[in-house]
Amino acid sequence: MSNLRLIVGLGNPGAEHLRTRHNAGFWFVDALALREQVRFGVESKLHAETGKCVIEGESIWLQKPITFMNKSGIAVASALRYYKIAPEEMLVVHDDLDLPPGATRLKFDGGHGGQNGLRDIMAHLGHGKFHRLRIGIGHPGHRDKVTSWVLGRAGVNDEQAILGGIGAAIDVLPLAVRGDFNEAMKRLHTQERE
After folding, report:
1. Which of 88, 72, 82, 83 is nearest to 124 (CA)?
2. Which of 44, 151, 159, 160 has a CA 20 to 30 Å removed from the CA of 192?
3. What is the pLDDT of residues 61-83, one digit of tens each?
4. How far is C-alpha 34 from the geometric centre of its chain's CA atoms?
5. Model-wide pTM > 0.85
6. Crossing angle of helices 24-36/156-178, nearest 10°?
């Protein structure tokens, strides 16, 4: 299994979107950047804020697209081309309605599950063969409420749960960076049940 070289957090740019559920991917990359003392800079040619850190001796690019969620593929395709990174060396971190707040799941390949950022990335790449970290944000209970739910702020308990899940995912990241995704998944998915 290939090592990770690029971690992309999905979200919407701008202060008004900062703490929304849809920005859980940004929350993850920001939390990782804080832990690794990474500073972001805007790379207009990559349509993203980018930074770099070293995990397990590997240089990892961090990216937060500034294109808005439904155009994430533009930034991702640009980064893969520019850094000469294969899609399977990338981890895309995104919010997931089908998981309860705070649940986190690693997976490789698959569909977009209605997530607009993933949908656009897959449209640009022509496939879904990349790693994903799904961050649970819960479901409002009815599909008519989904848009206002994802673009709204989580309540205090949900936000704490989401941040806790992000912390747990960052803890297993060194395993994923080394290419040991199975062990990373096992640890991440067992932690929740404890």
Report:
1. 72
2. 151
3. 999 999 999 999 999 999 999 99
4. 15
5. yes
6. 60
Cα distance between residue 191 and residue 21, in whole Å? 22
31 token code pair: 């939390």
Say yes or no to pLDDT of 120 above 90. Answer: yes
| 131: annotated active-site residue | no
Per-residue pLDDT tens for 134-170? 999 999 999 899 999 999 999 999 999 999 999 999 9
Specify whether the CB–CB gap between 92 and 11 falls below 8 A. Answer: no
Q: What is the pLDDT of residue 56?
A: 87
DSSP assignments along the chain, one per residue:
-PPP-EEEE----SGGGTTBGGGHHHHHHHHHHHHHTPPPEEEGGGTEEEEEEEETTEEEEEEEESS-GGGHHHHHHHHHHHHT--GGGEEEEEEETTS-TT-EEEEES---TT-HHHHHHHHHHSS--SEEEEEE----SSGGGHHHHHTSBPPHHHHHHHHHHHHHHHHHHHHHHHT-HHHHHHHHHHHHH-
CATH number for the domain running over 6-193: 3.40.50.1470
User: Which two structure tokens, joined as six digits, stand for 181?
Assistant: 């995704």
The catalytically annotated residue of 22, 47, 94, 131 is 22
List the domain boundaries for the chain. 6-193
pLDDT over 60 (residue 86):
yes
